[in-house]
Amino acid sequence: MDLTLKIWRQKNATSKGKFVTYKVTGISPNSSFLEMMDILNEGLVVKGEDPVAFDHDCREGICGACSMYINGRPHGPDKAITTCQLHMRKFKDGDTIVIEPWRARPFPVLKDLIVDRTAFDKIIQAGGYISVNTGGIPDANAIPIPRASAELSMDAAACIGCGACVAACKNASAMLFVSAKVSQFALLPQGKPEAAERVQAMVAEMDRLGFGNCTNTGACEAECPKEISISNIARMNREFLSAKVGAQIPKEQAGGF
Amino acid sequence: MALKYSSITKKIIMALAGLFLISFLIVHLSINLLILKNDGREAFNLAAHFMVTNPLIQAMQWVLFGGFIIHILVGTVLQIQNWMARPTRYKVEGYSHTSFFSKFMIHTGAIILAFLVLHLINFFFRAKFGEMPEIMIGDKQYEDMGLLVIEKFKSLPYVLMYIFWLLFLGFHLDHAFHSALQSLGLNHNKYTPAAFGLSRALAILIAGGFILIPLIIYIS
Ligand code: HEM
Ligand code: SF4
Ligand code: FES
């Protein structure tokens, strides 16, 4: 396959950046998208040019590093996959492929296609955990958990923090990510004691970092590689509302609406 | 104030105000449809008279104004924050399979607002403060609101303008009802698909119902 690539090149976080057009030839339809990028970069290195910087790690769809906005879609033209799981057979010989970094104010571009996703870590630090003392392994059946809750919690916990939801959303909203993290704990007994504080703290941090608001458009759900459902966003809104109006929180800890 | 509220609180306010506005539209439409009744505008004028004289309705009128103002202000704040969250746009805009009209709520909302002002000048302020024709129903004299409406809708540009406006109201409503439920945290694998259908049905029935009125008056 011969392809034309239009790739966002940006030296560093402060430089302006622009699209640069490259040609790649003889790409196998069976190679993955990242292998195609590797072939491009080998060519650039041989020519003495700076290779295109992009994030990647596991290359099997579990780390969430491979952020690329390909032809108008995060992770490119396929459902429920990451960029590293995308194959070149999804494209046609002679295609032009436009590759951009995630675009969101809280995800500043560091270099080329790499963005800084520390904002997600900050949201997790605000409440995406449970406080327990470590020690011996607890008995698996000590706390009964309804099967449906366990299933829904595991579905939410499938989120790999890739940021495709933010990239796809017209508002650069992080609601799908945050709602997945809120839900995975809120559904389980171990997460319940801190549920009210957690949802308030994580939402406050999400807002503070400058992510947009949800318009219930559903682009996040359509592009999420782990098919996280926006029913999690509804659950987060319920959790948030009941925390604000009903939770027994000391006055000094309760924030405003 | 709206700036300090969290994203979710703002959405909940937006949803409650929006649902209230939908309930108002249904009442408004039910009354308007009376004008199509072939009774010399009697039922319509009586209903209009009731609406401008009943103290409860008069009180609700202020709640309605408040609802509109809150919906518009909070909607504008949300939208500005949303634009600010993506300072650099994509070269290739999103292809994601999504609810189409949800992407244009601020635009359809702005069109509704622009025509709303005109609409209030045409009918509301005329009825409240302007000169009104009179009509005898039984042995009592009433203001002939119906005549005002029929006169307006005899002009083709007016009819077309109203239809244009109401189409955009329909577009706004298509993403209104189900979205408000989702904002309020009401999502269920059995009922949410029905809420989508109901949302579209409301959009078609409300916008379609309002469109029928100028259309039928103009044709007959
Ligand atoms: C009778 C007229 C109107 C009705 C029935 C109505 C109803 C609704 C409803 C139910 C929603 C969904 C709320 C949610 O997602 O939680 C909505 C959203 C919205 N409306 Fe309206 N609306 C009306 C007029 C307006 C006007 C005049 C504006 C002017 C700016 C406006 C701007 C918006 C915006 C920007 C949103 C999306 C907010 C977001 O999610 O980001 N609406 N509307
Ligand atoms: S919700 Fe989906 S798209 Fe968003 S960060 Fe998690 S895995 Fe990625
Ligand atoms: S590189 Fe790990 S998910 Fe793609």
Automatic annotation (TrEMBL), chain A:
<dbReference type="GO" id="GO:0051537">
    <property type="term" value="F:2 iron, 2 sulfur cluster binding"/>
</dbReference>
<keyword id="KW-0560">Oxidoreductase</keyword>
<dbReference type="InterPro" id="IPR006058">
    <property type="entry name" value="2Fe2S_fd_BS"/>
</dbReference>
<dbReference type="Pfam" id="PF13183">
    <property type="entry name" value="Fer4_8"/>
</dbReference>
<dbReference type="GO" id="GO:0009055">
    <property type="term" value="F:electron transfer activity"/>
</dbReference>
<dbReference type="GO" id="GO:0009060">
    <property type="term" value="P:aerobic respiration"/>
</dbReference>
<dbReference type="InterPro" id="IPR036010">
    <property type="entry name" value="2Fe-2S_ferredoxin-like_sf"/>
</dbReference>
<dbReference type="InterPro" id="IPR050573">
    <property type="entry name" value="SDH/FRD_Iron-Sulfur"/>
</dbReference>
<dbReference type="Pfam" id="PF13085">
    <property type="entry name" value="Fer2_3"/>
</dbReference>
<dbReference type="InterPro" id="IPR009051">
    <property type="entry name" value="Helical_ferredxn"/>
</dbReference>
<dbReference type="InterPro" id="IPR017896">
    <property type="entry name" value="4Fe4S_Fe-S-bd"/>
</dbReference>
<dbReference type="InterPro" id="IPR012675">
    <property type="entry name" value="Beta-grasp_dom_sf"/>
</dbReference>
<dbReference type="GO" id="GO:0022904">
    <property type="term" value="P:respiratory electron transport chain"/>
</dbReference>
<protein>
    <submittedName>
        <fullName>Fumarate reductase iron-sulfur subunit</fullName>
        <ecNumber>1.3.5.1</ecNumber>
    </submittedName>
</protein>
<dbReference type="InterPro" id="IPR025192">
    <property type="entry name" value="Succ_DH/fum_Rdtase_N"/>
</dbReference>
<feature type="domain" description="4Fe-4S ferredoxin-type">
    <location>
        <begin position="150"/>
        <end position="180"/>
    </location>
</feature>
<dbReference type="GO" id="GO:0008177">
    <property type="term" value="F:succinate dehydrogenase (quinone) activity"/>
</dbReference>
Automatic annotation (TrEMBL), chain B:
<dbReference type="InterPro" id="IPR034804">
    <property type="entry name" value="SQR/QFR_C/D"/>
</dbReference>
<protein>
    <recommendedName>
        <fullName>Succinate dehydrogenase</fullName>
    </recommendedName>
</protein>
<feature type="transmembrane region" description="Helical">
    <location>
        <begin position="194"/>
        <end position="219"/>
    </location>
</feature>
<feature type="transmembrane region" description="Helical">
    <location>
        <begin position="155"/>
        <end position="173"/>
    </location>
</feature>
<feature type="transmembrane region" description="Helical">
    <location>
        <begin position="100"/>
        <end position="125"/>
    </location>
</feature>
<keyword id="KW-1133">Transmembrane helix</keyword>
<dbReference type="GO" id="GO:0016020">
    <property type="term" value="C:membrane"/>
</dbReference>
<dbReference type="InterPro" id="IPR011138">
    <property type="entry name" value="Cytochrome_b-558"/>
</dbReference>
<keyword id="KW-0812">Transmembrane</keyword>
<feature type="transmembrane region" description="Helical">
    <location>
        <begin position="56"/>
        <end position="80"/>
    </location>
</feature>
<feature type="transmembrane region" description="Helical">
    <location>
        <begin position="12"/>
        <end position="36"/>
    </location>
</feature>
<keyword id="KW-0472">Membrane</keyword>
